[in-house]
Each structure stands twice: as C-alpha cells, then as structure tokens.
Amino acid sequence: MNQATLVTEIKQLKRTKSAVILAHNYQPREIYEIADFIGDSLELARKAEQTGAPLLLFCGVRFMAETAKLLSPDSRVILPEPKAGCELAEMATAEQMRNKKKEMGDVVTVTYVNTTAEVKAESDICCTSANAVKVVNSLPENRRILFVPDKNLAAYVAQETGRNIVPWEGFCYVHAFFTVDDVRRARKEHPDAVVISHPECPIDVLNASDRVASTGGMLKLAEQYDELVLGTEAGMCARVSYDHPEKRCYPLKPDAICKNMKRTSLEKAMQALKDETGEVTVPEEIAGKARAAIERMMSVSRPNR
Ligand code: SF4
User: Fold this and answer.
1) Rounded Cα–Cα distance for residues 33 and 224 (Å)
2) Which residues lie with the beta carbon below 6 Å from any ligand 1 atom?
3) pLDDT in tens for each of the 305 residues of the chain?
C-alpha cells in the first residue's frame, strides 16, 4: 500500500473508532500526516487530558503513552510499537529512587516526565524540559532537590535557578554527545542562523548556543527566525519545515537520531488501530501517586499562572 493510501485508510479508521492520534515532534515525518495533535511531552500530556476520546493512539515512546493514560484513565491508550522505550527513562528505577531518598533524608524529588510511571509515583513533582525551571522555582527555597533522571537538564536548571540540586546520573544518548565544536562548526556553516539547543544537551553546549528551548519552544522560536540550527533530535527540522516550509532549518548533528522514536510507521499505526493491540496500562496503586506528581506539575505550569 502506498503512503497516500495508508494515510487515507488510517484517517477513515480513526473516524470509525472515534480515535485521536497524538504524535511527538520527533516522530517520522509521515506520522505527522495522520496526527490530530503534534507536540512536545507537555503539550501532548495536556491534549491527552482534554481530548476525552475513547481511544488514543500515541505515536511516541512508552513513557509518553503512560503519561497519556495517567491523565486520561478512561481512554484506552495504544502504542503502535510496544518496543518503543526510552533509554533515558530506563536509567532510573523505583527501587533505586527509594534507596536514594532514604540515603539523602530530607529531600524534594523532581522527576522529569521521561521516566516510568513507577518512578513518577516515587516523586513529589514532575517536570518537562519546557517547565523544569518554573517547577523548581515553585519549590521552597531552603530544600535540597533530587533531580531525576537527566543530569544535563539538572545542570541547566541548577544554573538557571541557583538551587541546591543533586542530579541523577542519567542522560539521553541523542543529546548528551553534542559538543561545543558542533556549535562552532554550525556557526561557520550557517553564519546567519540562530543556534537553539535542547536542555538535555551538556551545559557547555547550552551556554555556547543562542537560545535554549524544548521542542515546543523551538517551534515557537521558528516563527521569529528565517534560519535555524537545532541542537536536538535531527527529525525536529522536519517538524519545523512542516509548519514553516519557508524556513531554513539544519540539525546540529544530522546523525542525532532517536531510534525508538523512529520505530513508529504508518503500517504499524494502521495495524494497532485496526486490532487495538499494544494497549498501555498502569496499575491503579501506581497510577494514583504518579498522577498526583504530574498534576502538581500541571498546576505550576498552566499558562495563566
Ligand atoms: S530522544 Fe532521548 S529522551 Fe527522547 S525518547 Fe529518545 S532516548 Fe528518550
């Protein structure tokens, strides 16, 4: 079946089943064609909460589908590729969290949304790369903060807030290996471009960039600039071009690809929608606590606050 036919059939199935398709910005370009909403983790979490659809097809990775399930407990949430995990999320387990909290004593735990539901359930509050600074600034000033699991995001938040942050030793393999030399090379090749990097990159790369932004933030910044270099997953340029075909967008590193994000295909999306397989569930005893940590984040990061 060719791509256009697949897209038409998926859209038809979506209508028949009253399903909503959510897609992360890093998904393959053809997935944008079937999505009702494309966004970063925070935007998709909010959409999942608002949609009320009986069936959500989540084109992304497992922790994102779990978050959608936590916020839309009455919807069935399906991940088209059950093997789509996240290496960063797998760097922290609930047991390790419990041990670390015991060892540290009086500590507030801030957990990046890129974690399993079990780890969220062990946390005081969640954050995304878009709201991490705001979330940390909302906490009482005298408290020590355990920031899980991304050490680069932790370093950025510590720099921006001046707070006492103890980082977990995790990292995203897609972002952690960008270097200041990559930024220098990009500036030479594209002297008129603004360099925008994701806060999962090392702090020296962030400080060498013009702007720091989540993927949602990058998309907003793309409205202001004609030429951009993006220090994030290389597919983000396809996302910028989807909304702004007239912009010139270059990845900081063309081989910075998240293999799990690219596991989704139109064929898998159609099959999952047809058979309703790949359902993501979270046991209620974990879901209640994990949801509370996400809702605390949502109340801090709502735009009207
Ligand atoms: S880009 Fe990094 S953090 Fe995002 S899903 Fe892939 S491995 Fe996980």
Assistant:
1) 25
2) 61, 86-88, 114, 172, 174, 233, 258, 260-261
3) 899 999 999 999 999 999 999 999 999 999 999 999 999 877 887 898 898 899 999 999 999 999 999 999 999 999 999 999 999 999 999 999 999 999 999 999 999 999 999 999 999 999 999 999 999 999 999 999 999 999 999 999 999 999 999 999 999 999 999 999 999 999 999 999 999 999 999 999 999 999 999 999 999 999 999 999 999 999 999 999 999 999 999 999 999 999 999 999 999 999 999 999 999 999 999 999 999 999 999 899 765 43
Domain extent at residue 242? 180-251
In the chain, the largest separation of any two C-alpha atoms, in whole Å, equals 60
Ligand 1 centroid vs 172 CA: distance in angstroms?
A: 6
Of 50, 40, 57, 41, the residue nearest 71 (C-alpha): 50
Cβ-Cβ contacts under 8 Å for 204 (sequence gap 6 or more)? 180
User: Are residues 65 and 209 both part of a single domain?
Assistant: no
CA of 236 to the centre of ligand 1 (A): 13
**CATH number for the domain harbouring residue 13:** 3.40.50.10800
